[in-house]
From TrEMBL:
PROSITE patterns: VOC (PS51819)
Tree of life domain: Bacteria
Protein's name in the database: Lactoylglutathione lyase
Residue spans crossing the bilayer: none
Keywords: Lyase
Keyword Lyase: yes
Entries under InterPro entries matching the protein: Glyas_Bleomycin-R_OHBP_Dase, Glyas_Fos-R_dOase_dom, VOC_core
Domain annotation VOC: ranges: 3-127
Pfam families in the cross-refs: Glyoxalase
Length: 144
């Protein structure tokens, strides 16, 4: 079995959040979805569980943060090329997302961030494969 990550996010409106993530290209896994949760698949290894507040609260005694006011985590998705980053941002903005950090081109890396309806931030990035292998400083030195 492939190593996987499941990102569990508390959401105020499950239907709205499910539609938002579907607009970004996530696929809803009906086997892991019900009236309290939507299992959203990004890739074979990355899944996002959207959990309504009541269900989320069964997993922790901690207070659910207001992600629009407090940052608890920054998630990041990588893409094959700059065009995929652009397409993701376009889809997110069309679905109502805001861009706390618009796309920046830093040469070896390209990306920005979007915020979902509950305030959860997803960073986006494409990195030059050589920079990823060498590290950004060594890559910059070689380019100079």
């Amino acid at each position: 079995m492939t190593d996987m990550i499941f990102v569990n996010l508390p959401v105020a409106d499950l239907a709205e959040s499910t539609a938002f993530y579907e607009a970004l290209g996530f696929k809803k896994n009906e086997r892991f979805s019900n009236e309290q949760a939507s299992g959203m698949v990004w890739s074979e290894a990355i899944h996002v569980m959207l959990l309504d507040h009541t269900f989320y609260s069964t997993f922790t005694d901690k207070k659910i943060i207001d992600a629009k006011a407090v940052s608890g985590v920054l998630n990041c998705l990588s893409f094959e090329d700059k065009a995929e980053v652009d397409a993701f941002h376009d889809a997110a903005k069309s679905a109502g997302a805001i861009e706390p950090r618009p796309i920046e081109d830093q040469g070896f890396m390209y990306g920005g961030s979007i915020e979902d309806p509950d305030g959860h931030i997803w960073e986006t990035m494409w990195m030059d494969p050589n920079a990823a292998e060498m590290g950004p400083e060594a890559f910059a030195a070689e380019q100079a």
